[in-house]
Amino acid sequence: MTEGFIEVADGRVWYTIVGEDRGGTPLLCLHGGPGMPHDYLEPLADLSDERPVIFYDQLGCGISPAPAGGVTWTVQRFVEELVAVREALGLDQIVLFGNSWGGMLALQYMFDCSPQVRGLILSSTPVSVSRWLNDAAQLRSRLPADVQDVLDSHERSGFFGCPEYQGAVAEFYRRHLCRMLPWPDCIERTFMGMGADVYMAMWGPSEFGPVTEELMHFEVVDRLGQILVPTLVTGGRFDEARPEHMAVLAGGIPGAELSIFERSAHMAFVEERVAYMARLRAFLARIDDHSTDSIGEAGAAGRY
Q1: Whole-number average pLDDT of the chain
Q2: Out of 31, 38, 176, 266, which one is annotated catalytic?
Q3: What is the pLDDT of residues 1-28, one digit of tens each?
Q4: Which of 52, 163, 205, 297 has CB 3.0 to 4.6 Å from 26, enough for a Cys bridge?
Q5: Per-residue pLDDT at 291
């Protein structure tokens, strides 16, 4: 395992490469949040027996703290950060994995940069924030009445940081983020390292909104046809990124595959780890076997 820091705009980010000497196409992993560090993605290191698996903590969370002077948090700066990470590590060919916000970042990177990417794995990735919020409201309506009352009363008062409110949000998480009890250590470490400032600036005070201007208008369904590389879309049956939403994502990308994991919520790679890794291995094996054909027109002349 190799690890270090990469200079990026506004600071530096920590990275690690597991299985650096393996021969398969490297898998570069983008964590969610925004501001939830890489730790919960660690099960993906199971794939390092076949290929390098690269993690990094986006600036502002985990082992990549933001500088004291503050940062203007935008989608564009995180796209530029991803470009800088690839260039610094010399990742000429990759498969790009993104979970949740990480998948949104992966899509924006593809739209903006037409990069050289051999495949995409989009895990529980919203493509319509308005749909995400509507779905969250529906799932919230199924919570026990007393939990809904706590959420409603605290939101009316703006008491988002109150422990009682956070406890009510945790009930939603137990149903729709990760259904394992207790939560594995990797998820606990993610919440310990959360970049609250990044989350607040990029998304807002809670999963239910109100969403800030930066991501409020993330509506990319009409652009999905621009993705011209092999793509696997995954989600969980109980996911806050609901299966119907993931079907829209997969249906918009030419030739994309969709896998819904029946006992999982938002973190199927943790909740159904063995089955999830088997699915990824099969998808990645086809990319390794057809490396020349898998770049696609979008990546053939692109940049990092």
Answers
A1: 94
A2: 266
A3: 899 999 999 999 999 999 999 999 999 9
A4: 52
A5: 66
Two tokens, residue 188: 């606990």
Whether 222 is catalytic is no
**pTM, rounded to two decimals:** 0.94
**Quick check: is 100 catalytic?**
yes
C-alpha of 105 from chain center: 8
CA distance 206 to 176: 14
For residue 128, give the 3-state DSSP assignment.
Answer: strand
User: Do 103 and 122 contact (CB within 8 A), yes or no?
Assistant: yes
Q: Is 110 helix (H, G, I), strand (E, B) or coil?
A: helix
Cβ-contact 109, 34 below 8 angstroms? no
**HEC string of 1-40?**
CEEEEEEECCEEEEEEEECCCCCCCCEEEECCCCCCCHHH
- One of 39, 46, 48, 100 is an active-site residue; which one? 100
Comparing C-alpha atoms, which of 35, 53, 114 is closest to residue 89? 53
Indicate if 239 belongs to the active site: yes
The string of pLDDT tens digits covering residues 81-105 is: 999 999 999 999 999 999 999 999 9
pLDDT tens track for 263-294: 999 999 999 999 999 999 999 999 999 864 43
Residue of 39, 239, 259, 264 with catalytic role: 239
